[in-house]
Amino acid sequence: MKGFLDYVPGNSVFHKMNPVTKLIFAFTVCIGCFSSGNLLVLLALLIFNIVLGCICGIPQRTYSLLKGLTKIALMLFIIQVLVIRSGNVVEIFGVPLQWKFIKITDKGSYNAACLVLRLSCGTLPLAIMLSVTKLGDLSNALVEKWHVPFKYAFTLTTAIRFIPVFATEMAGIIEAQTSRGIELDTKNPFKKIALILPLCAPLLVSSVRKTQSLAIAADLRGFKFRKAGSCLKRYPFMFRDFAAFVVGIAVIVLGICSR
Questions:
Q1: Per residue in 173-188, is it b (16+ CB within 10 Å) or e — as a string?
Q2: How many CB atoms lie within 10 A of CB 80?
Q3: Residue among 19, 240, 56 nearest 137 (CA)
Q4: What is the pLDDT at residue 1?
Q5: Burial group, residue 112, by CB count within 10 angstroms (0-12, 13-18, 19+)
Q6: Burial of 214 (C-beta count, 10 Å sphere; 0-12/13-18/19+)
Q7: pLDDT tens column, 177-231
């Protein structure tokens, strides 16, 4: 998952879209996913996201994101199936899936499947859109089109930019601790959490240092004097942007109607 938000150059229609359009489109797809309660519609939206990644020219990254989400989704699916006890007990070849206080119901399985698909469908669009958008263009477009103060737009894009940086830093810290004989590759999740939590301290120190360096660099480049008209590049809305708006609204309507 390292570097999953890095910009991927390309010449697709989504690369050429207005950065604000891409952000709105991703959020509309997310809203449509969470508005729907139909398993088939959610599955169709998941396929739509995979096709979207292929159109953007990043199929490998899309599959990697989906693979990373599978582990979290599987854990949530098991929890939902075990917690939700309403509904009829599921039977396989006439054998009910029930043992003592544990029982698997049709309603629990359905809700768990919907939750897993919502998680996947709601995460992929934003990750895909950020992969085909330069963060500098995103901050400038937010200032130009939405009149967001530049310091807030810069804070947003900087936070996104630092996610893969911190992931790389954490990977380096884990490798350093592993070389010192600490077994961080244990299969026990509780033991692994107990071992990783102390590693957050050096990560916090490193992040504070990077923040200070970034603040000094921004001041030296005249960050305080940046205004809405300081950017020379313009981001007009084209036909493809309006088409994306229409598709996003259609996804929301489909999600609401499928409930």
A1: bbeebeeeeeeeeeee
A2: 18
A3: 19
A4: 47
A5: buried
A6: middle
A7: 778 777 777 777 677 777 777 778 888 888 788 878 888 887 777 777 766 666 7
